[in-house]
Amino acid sequence: MTKERHPSRRRLQQWLVGESPRRVDRHVEGCEHCEALLEELSALDLSLVADLHDAVTPPSDLANRTTDGVGERLRDEAALATFLDLFTVGWATARAIVDPEAQLRPADADDITGEGT
To answer: Under 8 Å CB-to-CB from 88, ≥6 apart: which residues?
Structure first.
């Protein structure tokens, strides 16, 4: 009586994806042990696929969170722009109070238009 050798787990995994020789086909077709092992390996593959699906599927509220985050960022930028505009007005007012003639000098007008000497 000869003891029949079973393919290794690695060889059976290759067989599941179609990368194993024909003799493994013949062996698996008549071996209950290998069929049971293949079912176990297939279940692991399905479990792995389910885990990967869960890992790469974005959260259901991603669109809402993204939209809310972008909206908040835009509101913050608008508030900053308003603050800077008000600061500029305040700065110009303070400058006019401290040096009232600064607005009337011809040299400043040339600098603004780019036609200075």
So the answer is: none
Between the two ends of the chain, the Cα-to-Cα distance in Å is 111
Q: Which residues of the chain have pLDDT under 50?
A: 1-2, 108-110, 117
Tokens representing 60?
């259901």
For residue 43, tell me if it sits in a domain. yes
Cβ contact 27:7 at 8 Å: yes
Predicted local confidence at residue 104, as pLDDT: 58
The packing angle between helices 22-30 and 32-56, to 10°, is 110
Number of domains composing the chain: 2
Contact assessment for residue 103 and residue 96, using Cβ atoms and an 8 Å cutoff: yes
Structural domain including 95 reads 76-113
Residue 85 lies in a domain: yes
